[in-house]
Amino acid sequence: LSLKFGDVGNLKGLVIRFLLTTSYYQLSVQNWFSLHSLQLLYNHSIQATFNATRIHAPASYSYHCEHVSSLQRYDALLIPSSANDLSKLWEVTFTDFQIQGFNVQEGHFAYAKDCASFFSPAILMGLVMSLILLLVLAYALHMLIHLKSLDRHYECKASPAYFSQVKDNDIGDEKEPLRSNANESFELRNQQFCKIYI
């Protein structure tokens, strides 16, 4: 494909030539086209040549990209063909680039295959955060499943007195004062404690 500027001021001698190739891939069972290289011609002489990378689409589709450029800030899909020629002196950038070399019908572009990668940084970050949330949820469900309910069976037993009995014949209140050597002590009787089983 050749893009000519006609009589547009100083650009009338400039021609941008796109070299396209087609290939058949058995895995996709269809033909694909790819932009092989881009040439800049001025007054019928080649000024610069750029090799194109990752610019391809099925032959029945068109290819679309927001920026196709030789600059690194736009992902440099156009690479100078040689370090010795004049290509490194040129900076080429196409904005809202769309191309279709084959199977053009009624002068309109077919459905476009976009250059945007499916796994963009935002999508990858969302996938990582979703994975973390799923792990937290799985851990919480695991803890809930293995949580045992409180069994409401209590077993109460009488505990022995903490103090030895001083008088066997005294039956009174649970607290009975005992006097010996002017020291006051208490004897606890019928003390009970309960066990709770979980």
TrEMBL record:
Superkingdom of the organism of origin: Eukaryota
Membrane topology term: Single-pass membrane protein
Keyword Transmembrane tagged: yes
Claim: Membrane is one of the keywords in the record: yes
Keyword vocabulary terms for this entry: Membrane, Transmembrane, Transmembrane helix
Domain (V-type proton ATPase subunit S1 luminal): residue spans on this chain: 1-102
Name of the protein in question: V-type proton ATPase subunit S1-like
Species for this entry: Cuculus canorus (Common cuckoo)
